[in-house]
TrEMBL record, chain A:
The active site is at residue 217. Belongs to the ubiquitin-activating E1 family. UBA3 subfamily. Its EC number is 6.2.1.64. PROSITE patterns: UBIQUITIN_ACTIVAT_2. Transmembrane segments: none annotated. SUPFAM superfamilies: Activating enzymes of the ubiquitin-like proteins. Pathway: Protein modification; protein neddylation. This is NEDD8-activating enzyme E1 catalytic subunit. GO terms for biological process: protein neddylation. It comes from Ranatra chinensis. It comes from the Eukaryota. The keyword Repeat does not apply. It is an enzyme of class 6 (ligase). The lineage of its organism: Eukaryota, Metazoa, Ecdysozoa, Arthropoda, Hexapoda. Catalytic subunit of the dimeric E1 enzyme, which activates NEDD8.
TrEMBL record, chain B:
It is an enzyme of class 2 (transferase). The active site is at residue 110. It catalyses: [E1 NEDD8-activating enzyme]-S-[NEDD8 protein]-yl-L-cysteine + [E2 NEDD8-conjugating enzyme]-L-cysteine = [E1 NEDD8-activating enzyme]-L-cysteine + [E2 NEDD8-conjugating enzyme]-S-[NEDD8-protein]-yl-L-cysteine. This is E2 NEDD8-conjugating enzyme. Its EC number is 2.3.2.34. Belongs to the ubiquitin-conjugating enzyme family.
Length: 449, 182
């Protein structure tokens, strides 16, 4: 067979493979952003340079990886700390029975790479917290399909900490957009976060549905629902009787059985029906059933946003889309507003220059009070050293003041503060905590001096 | 419009080896609790104790009511804010045995903002005021200790005596209360 012809045939195949994308990227149209300049370069960027990080390889993650890979993205990384469980297989379609027990990230990457020619997914079987700024900075876009608010808030803090400002102006090359998808049963949402520009996760913490809770007195005295009975056993009876001498473990069938029996007794006592083992398990473990179709819709929306951001062919979602198919289909898009007092995004990290590590904490506090741009009154300062929180000085809380007073006489070196350490400063003069990054001259600089 | 493809085509292929996480940064919960604690504006009947000054997420609140049924008593509450604070409220338990319609003998407290009515805009200070209010106005409508609630509803004199008895240390009915006078 003629090799030349085969190569040509492949190219032809590739040309046709991306023809739909080229229609979007190489022509203008009424839905394009007015600044959009069609060019063949854009597809080239999507396919060869654009680096996308997918967080989570679960229900949303499998959908996202499939969507992105089929849309032409080739440089994809995926992080997931979980292994595959039998109960995942109905919707996490990159996994098979033989994969049970293996890391989700590894199996998902292997599947996509084998199935979609040219695509290179790099798996990371780890926690998001295992990576530092350096790692996250390499990506153009981050898309997350997480089921935890703590993890979302951590990611949010990370992309905000990557921003850098020149004289108060955001350096746009440090901005990494985050597309965030979330689902709960038949409800879901997709949102686009331009850190430092649009509402961040902390700005809209109110939007996350709180865990279902019932008033304690209802649970204790006037239960009406089977859930009330289960909560009663979980919150009150367990602590009183302590049947296994340990906190409740939702994965231990003995625990669930005990709760089931006790809740049944209580339900009988109050004439409440509908109490099943399944319900007990669900309430104790806070299980909200995952729905494959909701994941598919939300992931499709997120992947579209990634494509829009990467190509600039269309304005991105502004900025929050809710979806609900409990009863018919409902969707609504609105602009979640940036909270001007947001603790995470309203105050970018400020640099605080100190002469060297021999400066005493008291001197640093004095300088915050004397500095014309801060003029603080009685700043409280905490920091994080080697991953542990440390209170340096809190003047207003008597019991802490007494025990941190001696820190005032210590030098920054003695306190473990280094170049780049972050100080969290709260003061009555500012409605927010201010984060300072310490800048000390390097030792060689001092030699030059 | 941010044009990623023109901005960052030059983006470096940063080395992507996983590292031991850089943990210089404070968590969002830590940022928020620092602000909450530094802004604590305690009524004169309340004080705080921090067993570990480096851990602002765990502390005790001491309430010594100066009026109402519980005047002269001293009640300790443990506070524990988790990593999801303020999305989730701190866990609060009463550590002093108290004869109170809204606090049971295990220390569970029935205060709406500790559970179903918690909102991230609320602060530690809001809870302090809520707890202080529970001592001024025990509420027999939402009982956790049903017996105490019934007594309060039907015989305020007896309720007052029972509270005194419990605070001095002794039995109310079949339940023994430890002395908690200031
Ligand atoms: Zn924000």
């Amino acid at each position: 067979m003629d090799i030349g012809n085969e190569t040509l045939g492949n190219q032809d195949h590739l040309q046709r493979r991306w023809s739909h994308l080229r229609k979007l990227l190489e022509r203008s149209g009424p839905f394009c952003h007015p600044d959009f300049e069609p060019s063949a370069e854009i597809l080239n960027f999507v396919m060869s340079s654009c680096k996308v990080l997918v967080i989570g390889a679960g229900g949303l993650g499998c959908e996202l990886l499939k969507n992105l890979a089929l849309m032409g993205f080739r440089e994809i990384h995926v992080i997931d700390m979980d292994t595959i469980d039998l109960s995942n297989l109905n919707r996490q379609f990159l996994f098979r029975i033989k994969d049970i027990g293996k890391p989700k990230a590894d199996v998902a990457a292997e599947f996509i790479n084998a199935r979609i020619p040219g695509c290179k997914v790099t798996p990371h079987y780890s926690k998001i917290q295992d990576f530092d700024e350096e790692f996250y900075r390499q990506f153009h876009i981050i898309v997350s399909g997480l089921d935890s608010i703590v993890a979302r808030r951590w990611m949010n803090g990370m992309i905000l900490s990557l921003l850098s400002y020149n004289e108060g102006e955001l350096d746009q090359s440090t901005l990494i957009p985050m597309v965030d998808g979330g689902t709960e049963g038949f409800k879901g949402n997709a949102r686009v976060i331009l850190p430092g520009i649009s509402a961040c996760i902390e700005c809209t913490l109110d939007l996350f549905p709180p865990q279902v809770t019932y008033p304690l007195c209802t649970i204790a005295n006037t239960p009406r629902l089977p859930e009330h009975c289960i909560e009663y056993v979980k919150l009150i009876q367990w602590g009183k009787e302590n049947p296994f001498d340990c906190p409740i473990d939702g994965d231990d069938p003995n625990h669930i059985n005990w709760i089931y029996e006790k809740a049944q007794e209580r339900a009988r006592q109050f004439n409440i029906g509908g109490l099943t083992f399944r319900l007990v398990h669900g309430v104790v473990k806070n299980i909200i059933p995952a729905v494959a179709s909701t994941n598919a819709v939300i992931a499709a929306s997120c992947a579209t946003e990634v494509f829009k951001l990467a190509s600039s062919c269309c304005l991105p979602l502004n900025n929050y889309m809710v979806f609900n198919d409990v009863d018919g289909i409902y969707t609504y898009t609105y602009e979640a507003e940036k909270n001007p007092d947001c603790l995470a995004c309203s105050n970018n990290v400020k640099t605080l220059d100190v002469k060297d590590g021999n400066m005493k904490l008291q001197e640093l506090i004095d300088s915050l009070c004397e500095n014309p741009s801060y003029q603080m009154k009685s700043p409280g300062i905490t920091t994080v050293i080697d991953g542990k929180n440390k209170t340096l000085y809190l003047p207003l809380i008597k019991s802490i003041e007494e025990r941190t007073r001696e820190n005032l006489k210590k030098t920054l070196n003695e306190l473990g503060l280094k170049n780049g350490s972050q100080l969290i400063v709260a003061d009555v003069t500012n409605p927010n905590t201010i984060i300072f990054s310490l800048r000390m001259p390097k030792e060689n600089d001092m030699v030059v001096e | 419009m941010i044009k990623l493809f023109s901005l960052k085509q030059q983006k470096k292929d940063g080395e992507s080896a996983p590292r031991v996480g850089n943990q210089k940064k404070a968590s969002a919960a830590q940022l928020r609790i620092t602000k909450d604690i530094n802004e604590l504006n305690l009524p004169k009947t309340c004080s705080t104790e921090f067993p570990d000054p480096d851990d602002l997420l765990t502390f005790k609140l001491i309430i010594c009511p100066d009026e109402g049924f519980y005047r002269g008593g001293k009640f300790a509450f443990s506070f524990k804010a988790g990593p999801n604070y303020p999305h989730e409220p701190p866990k609060v338990k009463c550590e002093t045995q108290v004869y109170h319609p809204n606090i049971d003998l295990e220390g569970n407290v029935c205060l709406n903002i500790l559970r179903e009515d918690w909102k991230p805009v609320l602060t530690v200070n809001s809870i302090v005021y809520g707890l202080q209010y529970l001592f001024l106005e025990p509420n027999p409508e939402d009982p956790l200790n049903k017996e105490a609630a019934e007594v309060l509803q039907n015989n305020r004199r007896l309720f007052e005596q029972n509270v005194q008895k419990a605070m001095r240390g002794g039995y109310v009915g079949s339940v023994f209360f430890e002395r908690c006078l200031k």
